[in-house]
Design brief:
Elements lengths: L4 E3 L1 E2 L5 H9 L3 E8 L2 E9 H8 L9 E5 L2 E12 L6 E8 L6 E10 L5 H4 L3 E5 L3 E6 L8 E4 L8 E3 L10 E2 L11 E7 L8 H24 L1
Parallel strand pairs: 1-5, 3-7, 8-11
Antiparallel strand pairs: 2-4, 3-4, 5-6, 6-7, 8-10, 9-14, 10-13, 12-14
Length: about 220
């Protein structure tokens, strides 16, 4: 597993003007870390460093080491705010973790054997993924980097639900802890509907049929 370390600086100035200055002039991302029955701590981190880390999918489902003011804490990402149309990162929320307390986090799904899926390779279907990540609950030591789903034997018209996923030991899907209605479809294979091209004779027949229908409608109106 990849180790991620956030080297952060303490932040003591707040407010909209200060955060705008922080992003524009200093090229930094403001953030906050909370949890574990401790007071929240505000920090700032380099835009460049954070962009490099988020380019790795595993960053979002890993326990991260946060180094701040000479201390080191284990955290997970709870929210990363991005600018709606710029490449700028706006704010980072981190949550402290406790070794004997369960955490909730989104974990990416890796779909195995897409190329050899029966429904796609032999039955003329297309593979559609409804979910690309799953929110799970587990102790920090059981946190998976990703969850694998094998679609090799998935046929046209068939689906895989959350409840059909094989999970690592100690990991639970939070949605399934609510009720059966939250047992979402994760992936499916659907038959591809091809566009039927009409030749000139077929098109002419359709035009004649349409004309006949119109004539019948007009006759009905005259008879009223």
């Amino acid at each position: 597993m990849v180790d991620f370390v956030i080297e952060a600086e303490h932040r003591s100035a707040f407010g909209k003007a200060e955060t705008r200055r922080l992003r524009r002039l200093d090229d930094k991302v403001p953030g906050v870390v909370y949890g574990a029955k401790k007071d929240p701590a505000h920090f700032q981190i380099s835009q460049k460093d954070l962009r490099k880390m988020i380019s790795n999918e595993a960053f979002f489902s890993h326990i991260i080491e946060l180094k701040l003011q000479g201390n080191s804490e284990s955290v997970i990402i709870k929210h990363l705010e991005k600018h709606p149309f710029k490449s700028q990162l706006m704010h980072l929320d981190l949550q402290r973790i406790v070794s004997d307390e369960k955490l909730e986090i989104d974990v990416p799904i890796h779909f195995l054997n897409r190329e050899t899926c029966i429904g796609v390779k032999s039955q003329g279907g297309a593979l559609y993924t409804d979910l690309n990540e799953i929110n799970v609950s587990c102790l920090p030591r059981d946190l998976p980097e990703f969850i694998e789903i094998d679609v090799a034997n998935l046929e046209v018209g068939h689906v895989i639900h959350l409840s059909e996923i094989t999970l690592p030991s100690g990991v639970a899907i939070t949605a399934l802890e609510l009720d059966e209605e939250h047992d979402q479809v994760v992936v499916r294979v659907t038959k591809i509907v091809e566009n039927i091209e009409l030749d000139e004779d077929d098109e002419a027949d359709l035009e004649v049929d349409a004309t006949d229908d119109k004539t019948d409608d007009e006759s009905d109106d005259d008879s009223k």
